[in-house]
Amino acid sequence: MNHALPTAAPDDCARDRAGRPETRGIDQVPVTERHGRARELFAIWAAPNVSYLSFVIGATLVLMGLSPVQAIGVALVGNLLWILTGVVAISGPAAGTSGSVVSRAMYGVLGNRIVLVLTGWLIASAYLALNWSAASVAGIGLARRVGLPDNSAVEAVIVCAIAGATLLVAIYGHATIVRLYAGLSTFLTIVFVVVTGYVLAETDWSYAPAEPLHGAALFATLTAGFTIIASTPLSYSNSPDLARYLPRGTSPVAIAGWTAFGAYLPSVVFTGVGALAATSLDMSDPQRALENILPGWFVPVFVIAVVCNTVANNGMTAYSAGLAVQSVGIRLARIPAVLIIGVLGTTMTLFAILVFDFLTSVNTMLELVVVVTGPAMAVAVTDLVLRRNRYDGSELLAERRDGPFWYRGGVHWAGILAITVGGIIAAMCVTTSFWTGPVAAGTGDLDLAIPGGMLTAAAIYWGLCRFLRSIPDA
Question: Which 8-state DSSP code applies to residue 1?
Fold first, then answer.
């Protein structure tokens, strides 16, 4: 069985150049075409995380009843999970292909397709919708300021325009992302530092919650905040996609370090700023609250920065989601695959913007995705450790019935059982605005979805791989 996907001609594949659409899909990057340095990953991961959503999440932690110091502490700890995103990234240069292909080692050729439909399509599309919603809310507000009609048609045009710009980045691909994000990270940092200055000027440094949390109530809120913060790094299982062009001999420590640090630093800083903003501003409407303290001339710059950040974040997500479409066996080139994900994400965005409240959409999304993304990340890291990062890209791409990743009937049951049972445990331990798992309810609403789901998935995968001897020399 060999469902080979359309691949670009060798002369096209070699042209991984900024400003030119990338023709390579999931096919392996030849050693002769590897290039770049690990430090490039810092800007690639910083640009998506110099983020308006970080302001929103930081403010949410304070609105939940935490003090600013407690909220910043949660941000410092929760964002440490970016280390896992960095660790997973080192499989990209080792295999020379996308993370959605590397995961065949964990779930089998056919089992991987089921997992990717959930993690690579639906969750990716939901994150596209979440970020497009944030940018669209800001863009719609600016449209009203300049006198455009306040109706659904204008809102739909703004959503589609932002989505179109994002998909253009994903279509131009890897080299454009590397070049563009270096400049974007600088621009976004400057704009958000200016916003930070105005926030600090308004901060109530003596702020304390009206009803300070203590004991079990405090611990429950801290665990819920940790889940919200950690949900973002756990969602980025696509980190191998952005590292796969690096030379195979690139230091794994450098790859993991630059990836994790590039995301961790801005995430912590601007989540903390959001928490401070909530001490004096009405952050139940974060866009209006921030715009009210900014000079009028700077508001359009801020909105442009929010849109650019969204394009950076979603450009990366759409790029990887297009590779995931190919990885499930759909015979499409990479660019049409990106467009399919874009249409799905745009539809979800329009629904979220026109039907649901923005903050409700943010919190619900971040509370729930960890049920899947936590166990999936745990399986990926455990597999990498067991294999010592030895991935054969050509074998992963072969899809042969007699290949090492066919396992039993195309399914690696160790991975499928690990992510399934881990997900069930996470669902039992999660606390959300509309669902509280029985374990969470029995422990005073403690949200233990991340440690419960991840430790369960890792233990099951480790144990079954050793029992079944499905990983050589594990």
Answer: -
